[in-house]
Amino acid sequence: MRLFTAVTLGDVIEARAAEELSRLRALAPTARFVRAEGVHLTLVFLGEVEPSRLPAIREALASVGPRHAPFTLSVGGGGTFGTPSHPRVLWSHVRGDVEALEALQTDTAAQLLPLGFEPEHRDYAPHLTLARAKAPKGDPALLACAQALASVELGEGRVDRLVLFESRGPDYVPVVEVPLTRAG
């Protein structure tokens, strides 16, 4: 099983992302765009995991929810990762209660660490990935997409659960959902 933990952003952001992704595909026809119904903010990527480890992961994640209250994020604008002339990733800014998101990510990573899951990156940089270049050297068209997103707002969404997803090709299937239940 290929697993990762994430938060979803709700129907409003999904609907607006679908509209924008449709528009952006024309600007970068060779890029791999995410599916709007799968937009999420990854917290910790676990990678390939044996199904027998799922109970321990489920138990570790269950302890996270009661320590965090639901919070609100907004998404808008755009940027790229990679060299400026040949970016590899197109993303949108995450705003709002980013401190709550970072606290949730830190707690999730801490609970998974004793199970042998090292965080992918030292510093968590919240962003919503929208597309990736197919070419290993990047895709200059993604820069045009970032410019087209400069004044676009995708909306606001309430984060009320932590989700363990299984990646099955282009589909992300929820395996475990942990409600955020601390009174805020």
TrEMBL record:
A motif (HXTX 1) lies at residues 40-43. GO terms for molecular function: 2',3'-cyclic-nucleotide 3'-phosphodiesterase activity; ligase activity; RNA 2',3'-cyclic 3'-phosphodiesterase activity. The keyword Ligase applies. Keywords: Hydrolase, Ligase. The active site is at H40 (proton donor), H127 (proton acceptor). It holds the Pfam family 2_5_RNA_ligase2. This is RNA 2',3'-cyclic phosphodiesterase. It comes from Myxococcus fulvus.
